[in-house]
Task: inverse folding
């Protein structure tokens, strides 16, 4: 039987059992939550983190029964994007020579890998939408959106990047409302809005087209 990792508080079994049944791909062995699809222990102890795992790209791709080659293509694409490495690296002579020397896996072309971008984008949007469901949000007009959680640190999420012809309250409001709608979010979830354009913001009203959950 595996033992809890040092430095981590072992969760009470009854607390985990209250939600683990909602995730057929996960199981609790008394010390760790395991994903049977990915065959890995999860670094999480609550429903929110479990939902986040089953909606991520690696899990959904593995669970779909895709071929090893397709899985490799997705994993490679995710790695390059998250590391901010342009896909043109696949055409770099030195990189290809290094890859062919140390790896038996055939390196795809940039064109072939780009065909997976739309599906990856759809999977990421689905994952973000699920992650933000029923969460309170802090919106930063110049940088990012952040979930507010008093129990643990959170990471910012970039939901939209728009170039405004005129920086006005109306233009900013329109972009925010459209972005919230695209991710199925209510304006009532936004607790705080941060901007460095204070002069144009007095007339900003997110409740202009406010939707309610009633």
Result:
């Amino acid at each position: 039987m595996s033992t809890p990792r040092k430095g981590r508080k072992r969760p009470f079994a009854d607390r985990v059992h209250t939600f683990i049944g909602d995730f057929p791909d996960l199981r609790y062995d008394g010390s760790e939550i395991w994903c049977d699809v990915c065959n890995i222990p999860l670094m999480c102890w609550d429903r929110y983190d479990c939902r986040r795992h089953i909606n991520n790209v690696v899990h959904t791709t593995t669970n779909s029964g895709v071929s090893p080659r397709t899985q490799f293509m997705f994993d490679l694409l995710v790695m390059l994007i998250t590391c901010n490495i342009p896909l043109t690296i696949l055409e770099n002579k030195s990189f290809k020579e290094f890859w062919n020397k140390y790896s038996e896996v055939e390196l795809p072309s940039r064109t072939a890998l780009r065909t997976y971008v739309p599906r990856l984008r759809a999977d990421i949007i689905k994952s973000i939408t699920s992650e933000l469901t029923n969460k309170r949000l802090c919106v930063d007009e110049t940088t990012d959106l952040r979930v507010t959680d008093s129990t643990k640190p959170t990471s910012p999420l970039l939901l939209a990047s728009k170039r405004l012809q005129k920086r006005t309250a109306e233009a900013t409001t329109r972009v925010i409302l459209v972005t919230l709608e695209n991710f199925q979010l209510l304006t009532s979830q936004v607790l705080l809005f941060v901007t460095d354009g204070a002069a144009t913001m007095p007339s900003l009203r997110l409740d202009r087209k406010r939707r309610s959950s009633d």
Notes: The first helix runs from residue 13 to 17. The chain has a mean pLDDT of 77.
